[in-house]
Amino acid sequence: MGQCGITSSKTVLVFLNLIFWVEDEVNHSIQKVYNEYNGTNTDAPSRAIDYVQRQLHCCGIHNYSDWRNTRWFNESRNNSIPVSCCKPNARNCTGSLAHPGDLYPEGCEALVVKKLKEIIMYVIWAALTFAAIQVFGMLCAFVVLCRRSRDPAYELLMTGGTYA
């Protein structure tokens, strides 16, 4: 029981450290994925970016103008960004930068970091709850042991210096 408590405490420390590491790692990873975007649904980076932008209602890393710095934007030469940046209520949105009101204004990096931190906090709370249950179990076992040792009906059986 004690080992589980120690393990869950170590887990909490690992996840606390992870919170600070997440932001830096997300920034590096998201930049890499945006640079690999090619606008088709056949490759994982493109599918991932489109999915995140649609689900989190965001566009680009910091905002929609980040797309101007990507290889896909420079190669397409049509002054538009992915349609996944379009707001759902924007009719006939083509991702054109000429109509920025049709696009999500907020970038995805901050929202992804926020979601990951929320998930990590749930894991931390679960680990802390597990550790608290372990401590409570050890406390209960200690109380039972102390009460049993004072009970006159309980006697330790010893034969020849060894416990029977």
UniProtKB/TrEMBL annotation:
The keyword Transferase does not apply. Pfam families: Tetraspanin. It comes from the Eukaryota. The keyword Glycoprotein applies. Keywords: Glycoprotein, Membrane, Signal, Transmembrane, Transmembrane helix. Residues 1-24 form the signal peptide. The chain crosses the membrane at residues 119-145. It is a multi-pass membrane protein. It is found in: Membrane. GO terms for cellular component: plasma membrane. Regulates the proliferation and migration of oligodendrocytes, a process essential for normal myelination and repair. Belongs to the tetraspanin (TM4SF) family. Interacts with claudin-11/CLDN11 and integrins. This is Tetraspanin-3. It comes from Oncorhynchus mykiss. The lineage of its organism: Eukaryota, Metazoa, Chordata, Craniata, Vertebrata.
